[in-house]
Amino acid sequence: MSKEYNKANPAKTVKVTFKESKPGEKEYQVTVPAGSTILQAAIAAGVHLQSACGGKGTCGKCRVILEEKDRRGTLPEESKYLNSEQIAKGTVLACKRTVESDLTVFLIEQKDAYDRKTELEAEHDYDLSPLIQKHVLQVDIPNTQDQRSDWERLTAKLPAIKKPFNFNRSIAAKLPQILRAASYQVTGVTAGNELLAVEPGDTRNSSYGLAIDIGTTTVVVYLLNLINGKIMARRALTNPQQGAGADVLSRISYVTENPAGLTQLQSQVIEALNQMIADICREKGINPEHIYHAVAVGNTTMSHLFLGIDPTYLAPAPFVPCFRQAVTVKAAELGLKILDNGLVTVLPLVAGYVGSDTVGVMLAGKVDELQGIHLLVDIGTNGEMVLVGKGRILTCSTAAGPAFEGAGIKFGMRAAEGAIERVRINKDVELEVIGQDKGKIRGICGSGLIDAVAQMYKAGIITAEGRMPNSLSNLAKLPPSLRRRVLNNNGYREFVLAWKEQSATGENITITQKDIRALQLAKGAVLAGIRILMKRLGVKIEDIDQIHLAGAFGNYINKESALTIGLLPQVSPSKIKSIGNAAGNGAQMALLSTVEMAKATFLAQKAEHIELSAEKDFQDEFLNALALEQNY
Ligand code: FES
User: Residue 62 CA: which ligand 1 atom is closest?
Assistant: First the structure.
């Protein structure tokens, strides 16, 4: 994409208008250098186009429609991903088309991340001791005998701490007026020896914080009441950085190759957060200035981008991050719309590819209290694994690829409305679709893909090596209802999950041989990583007491299917449990408890990171882990 970008001619600019396909819907306009791609214009306009490959032209997801007058035939790269009906409608790939003069582009309806939310968990079994404390103060009124400054008389009333309170200019600027207007009765808001705010009167009952989980795909925000620890609201949005690619490597290269890339990606995530914060505050009738602390987790790249720190050197070996410790900055520094003086803490991370989200998973999984051998697995575009036992914590990560999130799969999509999420194959195919009552089928998400491949294997449609037989005679044993679903598409086998009559796109929704291969590569990387950790800790499958699956994916994955395709070690399904959005829960725990916050640092430091690319036996383990049938 950057090469295309470099072709842009900054001397001439063009106006690009994006229109929703339904009449009367929103329009977005942006001015960009001539020669920019439509995808770059979309990113600049804040329009979220799916772009799993980050603009390399290899995912076919960034489809838009051109007006008739602007159509100039189809590029060879496009014809790989577009059928004749789509081409006739004027569909093109946004990353492959440059804009030389003013242009209007129609967006194809793309449902946003469907919020498959879990119940808000209100209970917590740790001490409520947030960093943020509120103190109602009756400040001494000055007189000729007491001529201390306003700052001195205020801080003298705050509970004694080891260090003096840091002077805060922005608070001091308004302090004389606030004290006198409130007849010297105020509430002081503190975080250790930082004074964050002085509010007139008694505001002890209004104290809020945010837990933020910055996923590569989805950004989630929780609003918590710091007085009682209750979760008051939760919001999720697709990470708007998607325009720069579905995976972290695409985003790193976007930053490396585009001078404004870092600022652009940072402001995109901050804007998404501000939108959710404003929405939550409106709904709950809360003043955003009463939000004093936000604790964020994310993978190492997301943490760097959130803080506006260049992630370039995370991409090449030795994958070194800029920082590993917990980082706290003022909200105003990031542009986060809570109290300007409020604090934003990013939890510590372990390594270039084991981020603070994994530390959040460790906190929520209480790994410091676990007895026996426990494996924690968090699967997203990256797979992070933690093996706990014998007094040690081992971590590793694998570039699982975005297959588990539906990217790089012919009809793959995120877990959104219209996505197949469950597949059963008996005499024929039975599907469960997210929001099925609302419309037709649009594609398949990660949990549906795992189910589909597991069921195809069990039904004898694919072999243990993951191959669909070339000859239909090999499928003779299948009932006709299944046999007719095995198609030959230009020499490549495909299995039809949903016929075009059921599909929103007007095409059969299929699983291709290439999709199965992509899933095998992804699951092989995860399983090989787990086996390396087991070897390094010296444990066997029978030693594993429990496998904890974290993340939204872990919530929805079918355990039997995960075992059938050999994604996890072959333990009994009863030993596998889902621990929900553990990364987000970890952020909540650190927000509500200084003990948990300190524990995050302890766990990050105790974790021993195994860099798989440096492990001699990883390649062999990976090759062994590719087959669906796994016996150990
Ligand atoms: S093909 Fe355009 S972003 Fe992937």
Answer: 2
